Amino acid sequence: MLNHSRLAKLLRVLAVLSLLVLAACNTGNPDSSTPPANTTAASGLNVVATTTQIRSMTEAVLGDRGSVRSILTPGADAHEFEPKPGDVQAISESDLVLKNGLGVDDWIDKLIENAGGERPLITVTDGVLLREGGEEEGAEGDEHGAFDPHVWLNVSNAITMTTNIRDALVGADRANETAYKANADTYIATLRDLDRYIKDQIATIPTEDRKMVTNHDAFGYYIEAYGLTFVGSLIPSMSTGAQPSAQDVAELIRKIKSEKVKAIFLESSINPSLARQIGGDAGVKVVDTLYGDSLGAEGSPGATYEGMMRYNTDTIVSALK
To answer: Which residues make Cβ contacts (< 8 Å) with residue 53, sequence separation at least 6?
Structure first.
């Protein structure tokens, strides 16, 4: 017969084993009352953004009320993007999808269709003052195909995008409306400081040197907003997929020399070989570290939207002074 001490020990062991069995059963039970990790009840909103810039802005407004993932990855070229099967799964598990529009991310409609066809989809560039651009950037029949889609390179546009993101989050999660509005107000104040910073830094460049040559026609919003002059681009197109002719290259070299341009600027995601060839022929330096279509990797100067804009500005100012 067991004594009292051994009996108590045996009962404790049996109790622990019972708990382990129950836990294992609950883990595999689809009817368990514990919600899966990707549900709003467990972890807040699950948001998918098409671009890294939208992801960064959304993170600032969402705060700790959920998670956000971008389909485009850091360092990717938006013009050559091909969706992956995992992107469909991410959308199928999302509560909200945020897109740029204007031809940059038209592929999102097909992804949503493949993910089941029903997802709240918000275009965060609504209300932005658009620049005219190349029609080849938009999808066939897209009314915005004639406009430059790189709207985020003007911080004033980022403020409009942030307001749209705030409203989208509130619409999807009314319970946290106060938090989203407070986070948006804080972030918009940061963006206004960023806008002033860029203007102040560009003002330190001698007026005659405020000239930019870029790899493709992506920096128009930045150039117009901050008082620079666009001389030309290696690829005379909104898309990096286009190719310049020999005549285009010769004309650009002539312009660089005649305008006394100090540098050619490229995005870090672009192959710099053509720029280096033109830079050598024109006798100017090539700066190939800017962020344009996407943010940089975590830990890089361009890992956030604010970081991208500050880094680009500091780099441009240093090269043109």
So the answer is: 100, 152, 158, 294, 295, 305, 308
